[in-house]
């Protein structure tokens, strides 16, 4: 019966997952290619961040709008159009001729991704019956996250051994195949019987507020959180979003129906999604830096080191979905967030001598926690929404996750800098030339440099530089430990928030059949 109602559901899942994998892959692999792009087009450290912001601003700011368009004009149509825009923009980034063209094409990339990502999530939810939706959302979520982790690995190899342009050009044939399959296989959702009138003023205030927020979060660490620039952006964010809420509560046909937040399960799912991605993106921001800066891994080795996280997510995501289908979203989400909190806390014990197998175990544990969290959470957010609002609901849910990730990177990056500075000052106070241990180490280092042929004065300077480097590295190790503890605390807050998710346990198919038989028997008896 379900197969008749939902034909080609696994093929639909595979096609939609292809697009989301490519989106995550391109977005994350750019981090590896940034240095090469800087050298090609003469970007500086001050302005190269706009290559990243050119994607994240249009993507994050238009997610609810694109989800609304999917509800209104057809999800397949908006999904395919988004994938076409994303593919064309990706190809153009690879062909870019100057810095302005790179930024312009990255903006198009972000818009394309915003068009297809929330509608992809809704297409998967539409294709599967309710009793299988959790497992399907789990598999889709795992592939989406896998794309983000594959960027530093496959992308890192292409950048190091081919060139950065091939990073973008190489996905065009795959994306083209995804577009063709989407056109041929996906079925269009019914258009909603509503006016085609668009709330332009609401859209302008929403995009303005979210754009200002994303820029403030991304630039706060560099510009200073109390600078006039960041405070001005913060004020613009508050005023724009306040205006948006006022407009949406008064307009006859709102862009984002604020009544969605009267649904407690949807609201809590967004809150937990925000917290989860705050912890996830904070962790994924910290771990590669630790592997490269503390353990000395190469970019490719650091990327490959994240595979236990991918493998655990892909293997465990269907189980998380099945658990959600059987017990509802609350139990697996709480369990997943608890495991994620434990995994993040375990990272604080890493040192400059930690062997990779111990790191791999922690990464696998992190993947298990995410797999048990994301699919039940996505299903909880979507399951209680009417079909005509699933697109905009998906956009809002993904927006909360996106903003949560941006907040996590901004806050934890700032924490890492401040804690490193603090611990470096403390260590420098105790480890100085008056310290006997420091004096002995300096003497040993100076002697080693003198044996290699350096004059005494130069040998002493080199020894001091080595000692200062050791202090800086140890300060960074301690700072990473501090920040991982904070990330774990944030994840633990997600456990508490998940307790508010409504438990919507679904009866097993045999129980449903039994209930139907009983109802039929009662009806016959009454007759």
UniProtKB/TrEMBL annotation:
Regions annotated as coiled coil: none
Stretches the record annotates as Disordered: 505-527
Membrane topology, record value: Multi-pass membrane protein
Subcellular location, record wording: Cell membrane
Spans traversing the lipid bilayer: 10-28, 48-66, 78-97, 103-125, 137-158, 164-186, 198-217, 229-247, 268-290, 302-319, 331-348, 354-374, 395-416, 483-501
Primary subcellular site in the record, as a coarse category: membrane
InterPro entries in the record: EmrB-like, MFS, MFS_dom, MFS_trans_sf
Keyword Transport found: yes
Biased composition (Acidic residues): 510-519
Family (UniProt): Belongs to the major facilitator superfamily. EmrB family.
Protein name: DHA2 family efflux MFS transporter permease subunit
Organism: Anaeroselena agilis
Lineage, highest ranks first: Bacteria, Bacillati, Bacillota, Negativicutes, Acetonemataceae
